[in-house]
Amino acid sequence: MQVKQVFAHYERSGHLTGNFEYCPYCGAQLELAASERRLRPTCPSCGFVQYRNPAPTVSVLIVDGERVLLGRRGASPGKGTWSLPSGYIDYEEDFLTAAIREAKEETGLEVEIRSIINLVSSFVSPRFHFLGIYVAACVVGGKLVAGDDLEETEWFPLEGPLPEMGFQEDVGIIEMYARGFTGLPVDLAYATADGR
Ligand SMILES: [Zn+2]
Q1: Where in the chain does DSSP place strands (E)?
Q2: How far is the CA of 29 from the centre of ligand 1 (A)?
Q3: How far is the centre of ligand 1, averaged over its atoms, from the C-alpha of 53 (Å)?
Q4: What is the pTM of this model?
Q5: Which CATH number is 55-191 given?
């Protein structure tokens, strides 16, 4: 099975966008200064250093028999294309709870997380660098209705054909699952909405 875990959607060299211009603590203008092997925006007044990290996201492969649920995206990145339901993890949330919440918000369905399929680094643009956690889930309740960032939801065969997908990351995960890799076990205290 061929596995791809790093996806770059742009030429990464030379980009330094998305950095703060002013110190969020004292308001002084930041300057690039050497810090732990690289130049980082640094406050000459109070010493604040802006470290940038990828944002963890969770994507949910909701499976029903031989079908997978996809949504047509109503917002960037990937507006108009299809993708797995996904979103950011809130600071106070664990990733399993976030996956259950995102599935509910975007599809109306209540799900239980069954496994962790894979992790992916996505360099989407100079502004967006995601560490995507992909989980598989099954439906336990709710009513299918597109919401939040999705304009439309529809079931597609796991084996394809798939509609126009916004992210090859999603395609690779769906293929892995369709070929029989169902993933790593999950912590049942968090993988179900009622913590069974
Ligand atoms: Zn400062």
Answers
A1: 6-8, 31-35, 38-42, 55-64, 67-73, 82-83, 86-88, 109-125, 128-142, 150-157
A2: 8
A3: 20
A4: 0.89
A5: 3.90.79.10
Residue 92 alpha carbon to ligand 1 centre in Å: 26
From ligand 1's centre to the CA of 31, what distance in Å?
Answer: 11
| Architecture of domain 18-52 in this structure | Single Sheet (2.20)
CA of 24 to the centre of ligand 1 (A): 7
In whole angstroms, what separates CA 126 from the centre of its chain? 16
> d(Cα 128, Cα 110) in Å, to the nearest integer?
28
Task: Please check the confidence at residue 3 and state whether its pLDDT lies above 60.
Answer: yes
Work out the pLDDT band at 132, boundaries 50, 70, 90: very high
Query: What residue spans define the domains of the chain?
Result: 18-52, 55-191
109 confidence band (pLDDT: 50, 70, 90): very high
Q: How far does the centroid of ligand 1 lie from the alpha carbon of residue 47, in Å?
A: 6
Residue with tokens 């030379």: 14
pLDDT (tens digit, 9 = 90+) per residue, 6-44?
999 888 776 556 678 999 999 999 999 988 888 889 999
